Amino acid sequence: MLDPGQNDELPPIPGKRYFTIGEVSGLCEVKPHVLRYWEQEFPQLSPVKRRGNRRYYQRQDVIIIRQIRGLLYEQGFTIGGARQQLEGDDAKLDQTRYRLLIKQMISELEDVLRVLKA
Q1: pLDDT digits (tens, 9 = 90+) for 60-74
Q2: Kind and range of the H or E element at 48?
Q3: Domain boundaries 19-117, CATH class
Q4: pTM, entire model
């Protein structure tokens, strides 16, 4: 499992529609078995299941997973506390999602700018 004190930034989310559990694991720095467990504990997480029960996560799922990871690993919430935090305050949840999306957009725009300058 990850060190809760690790403050490294997570990699940017690529502009894809669907992500496999392995890709989400790398993007969120959480092991696949943890993601499967979180699906049982957090009703907000519901990846699409296709062919042979394979999970496909959408961008919104990745953002929620990053938020759950932050609550558990960085802010020290328990599973129950993180669940209540996510369910209880939709305004804060939306605000956090928007911050993550804006941060992601800035990162992607900086990448485009670097390519254009090269």
Answers
A1: 899 899 999 999 999
A2: strand 48-50
A3: mainly alpha
A4: 0.68
Give me the count of residues in the chain. 118
Strand order in the sheet with 54-57: 19-20, 54-57, 48-50
Spell 35-71 as b/e; 16+ CB within 10 A means b.
Answer: beebbeebebbebeeeeeeebbbbbebbbbbbbbbbb
- Distance CA(78)–CA(84), nearest Å, equals 10
Q: Where are the domains of the chain?
A: 19-117
The CA distance from 87 to 1, in Å, is 25
Three-state secondary structure call for residue 20:
strand
| 64/86 Cα distance (integer angstroms) | 9
Q: CA angle, corner 36, sides to 31 and 41, nearest 5? A: 120
